[in-house]
Amino acid sequence: MSASCGLCERDLEHGYLCPGDTLALAERLDRMPKLYAALAGFLAPAARGGAERVSTGRTDPGLPVDETVLDLRYGGIALVLEGWRSDVQRVRGWGEPAVTGDVERRVLAASRWLGMSLDWIAAAYPAAGDLAREVKELEGAALSIVGALPERGRRIGQCVSIDSSGVICGAVIRHQPGQTRLVCEWCHAVYATEQDWLLLLHHQPQQESA
What we know:
This protein is mostly helical. The chain has helices at residues 19-39, 50-56, 67-91, 103-116, 118-124, 128-146, 194-202, and strands at 3-4, 11-12, 154-158, 172-175, 182-183, 190-191.
């Protein structure tokens, strides 16, 4: 049975998201925690010119923070990502995910989880196109404020560290030019030898079932 990509409408043999849009979504999810962090520097609104203050004839203190940035930092990004994670888990019959930590941690957790689930999302999730579209719009809103993000380095693989409960970390590990020691941003596992790097390049962890 033929199908089409839920985002670009390209014909597919099966599934709901084409390989190109799946890769783009993976990259956007990978950038989202960094975008969230970058928005912190834009919370204060732009200063108003002196002429405007004089012409009003009264004191106008303005808003203490930029409302658009505030919405993205304390609601928008985390709630969108967590909402999609919740729906994916519902469709898979896994129940509601646990939401813990501060907003920054929540953004990182939801981005990582969705990124690790993209193979299933692209192949079996009917709302994959809507998910990709909303994450694209979310990134666009953030980038319109912070501008282009600096290069994050070459993607090496996913962290293979296993925690005390037996769950593989799976966070993306990146390499910057000249870097000889890689550290996972999520669990802080260290990869410093050639064997470690080969392990990252060739081993892809399986997504946990909850």
